[in-house]
Amino acid sequence: MLFLKNKDPKKLKLLLISAILLTLGIITAVFVGYRRMLDKHTDLVAAITTKANIAIEQFHHTATRNGIKEWILDARRARIINARHQAVFEDVSLTFFLEDNTNVYLTANHGILSTDSKDIEVSGNVVVKNKDYRLNTEKLNYTHSKRILYSGVPVKIISKSSELTANSMSYDLNTSQSLFKGSIKGVFGENIIL
Questions:
Q1: What is the pLDDT of residue 154?
Q2: Which of 14, 74, 140, 141 has the fewest other C-beta atoms within 10 Å?
């Protein structure tokens, strides 16, 4: 009010410039403090990832050989650990592509990809499906060089007309042939597909 009565434009300009500079200073201080807090949070997250070189949300990888797509891996979260040549996954989903243009689908709670050999180990509620069968187990491995899925723990295979359990199994993705071992039990209906 005092400035309005005196109508001193120099004092009014000085007051406005001071207010603007003070506001900019406060905004800068808040921004710098917030950035420091974010950097500390990032350091904490990096330490939690168990020495992973990189952690990725929504991971996606396609494996090819001689220009032919062999499998696709998706995961909710991945940690790449270069020292161990591994990628460790949570909520894994794999799609294997077969020569007869059909697919085999695999899901699991956890997975480990050997980044040098492309071999995969999955565990926790493992489900493997194709158009005719569903396999359930707790642990399964994939050997990339031979394209073989195998499990050394009990498996259960279900189709529309059969149910089979075994202590271990292997499945060759190249030939679509399965081999079951140890305490094999099965119930087969009339419309069995072998």
A1: 93
A2: 14
